[in-house]
Amino acid sequence: MNRNYIYLTVLILLLSGGVFFLPERDNKQHMDPEQLMREIMSPSRFISTDAVAEMIIEKDPTLELIDVRSIDDYNDFNLQNSINIPIDSLMSKNYLSYLGIEDMNAVFYSNDDIRADQAWVIAKRMGFKSIYVMKGGLNCWIRTIIQPEEPDQTASIEDFEQYNFRKGAAL
Predict the structure, then answer these.
(1) Does the global pTM surpass 0.70?
(2) Residue 130: which region, alpha, beta or left (left: phi > 0; alpha: psi -120 to 50)?
(3) Alpha-carbon gap, residue 10 to 83, rounded angstroms
(4) What is the pLDDT along the chain (171 residues), one digit of tens a residue?
(5) Rounded to 5 degrees, what are φ and ψ at 98?
């Protein structure tokens, strides 16, 4: 056997073995921590239950509701046309395709703000855009949309209109 073939074989084996020791490259765009902190402090990451209800009623094609609660909680109650991505599965390759869809607004929600906020931070840190948190979560949804408080007789017309909108959205 030719000595050149032996050297070539050894060289290829060494190079291919070296690939296993190289660190994996992460090509995702991660947000700068200072920028992330500025966005965390901004209230613009929140969207109200009234705004979500309006988008649901209007069948807004850009709305993507993401419930980050457990599968059991999701099966007990969820918002119309929402998808369930438990927060501990958010970074799974099975679910990443739901985030970052062009021209879509992903709105995270849970029972309150805590899990949805955590999901927002994770997604934002990973570089996803057009993501929001439904302010107050399902607790606020129940309080404002499902069981809105009727305004006093002396309340403004706007208060009655908002009450009627919420009653209509609850259906």
Answers:
(1) yes
(2) left
(3) 52
(4) 577 767 667 667 666 666 566 565 454 556 677 887 888 888 899 999 999 999 999 999 999 999 999 999 999 999 989 999 999 998 888 888 888 888 999 999 999 989 999 999 999 988 888 999 999 999 999 999 999 999 999 999 999 999 999 988 876
(5) -80, -15
